[in-house]
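Hey team,

Filing this mostly as a record. A colleague (T.K.) asked me to run one chain through the structure pipeline before their review meeting, and I want the input and output archived in the tracker in case anyone asks later how it was produced. No errors, nothing strange. Just documentation.

Input sequence:
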Amino acid sequence: MVTMQRGKEVIAALSVLHFTVDLLCAYAVYTRFLPMAAAARVFFTYNLCAFALQLPLGAAIDLIDQYCVKAARRELAGFLFTAGGAILTLLGCFTSLFLLGLGNALFHVGGGVLTIGEDDREGLKGRGLGVFVAPGAVGLFLGTAAGKGALPGLALARGAVLGLFGTVAAVALLLLAVILRRPKPTPVAAEPAVEPALPGARTIVIAVLCCFLVVVLRSCVGLAVSFPWKNGFAIGLLAVICVAGGKAAGGFLAAATGMRRAAVGTLLLSAACYLGGSDLLPGLLALFLFNMTMPMTLYKLKQILPGMPGLAFGILTFALFIGFLPVLGGYLSAVDGRLLGAVGSILSLLFLLPVLAGERPVRK
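Output structure:
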């Protein structure tokens, strides 16, 4: 008897891989590539490869599914992208920044498409999307801390770190392959779609642009805002747990209350908390609440672009790259972080409201 457990196991394996791949990337950037070149050049090159490349790679997965029905279905393509990305990431740690970023991009697109498929199949309504994305933030933080030598109690050689997490990635890939070979469960009966009708290309373009701008703002605010209390490993870890927790919780809240209610409530509270962000508790709440819209935007864009999950995922990761550019250029360094966070929250809400205008509240 086939149970609905397969999808959750796939998402769990992908989440472990996400944590591992992002940790390896951050660790390699700080231990291998930053000592060899200017920081701005390293960060620009890595982010260009790791995030901007996901847009064409996501479109490629959708084309494979559309034109190679029997030879390479989207699930197979997703697994090959995921496995290839994890392998290239590990190779990139020893070779080149381009390979490192390309591996990251391949993994995220493949893992994202697999997660979207399992989320749909199990009727999770976006819950799985936040669960998949959330561990990446923790991996980036720990990889950065280890690369800077700031991880308490850990003084492993670089080869030992890469070997340890390379082994974790290999085991997770093996488990993922085994799980995906199992028969697909019978899909849960889906409720009627609640998204508004999108009658033409103009409406679709506007909706895509709104979701895109929300993620640009999330990237920009997340990278630019610095709190006065955020120093030291323990506080930094607590902050990144709030970021990851918000991403994971956002999908559950939206599924329970509806995206419109969830977005309005979290972003208004986020704006208020950012204004008081000089203190620890409001600052942590701001990080948690502001990141809750992450699975909402991805789930909504997936609805707007049915049958194109790779493109939907790639569009939003390209938005992360665009949001990184003004921070890299130092254009926001003089802006008060509390004001930037509050304005970013309100603007995000204003961009989301037209997209969510047709959402009906979830019936209890």
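Quick notes for T.K.: The two ends are 31 Å apart (CA to CA). The chain has a mean pLDDT of 87.
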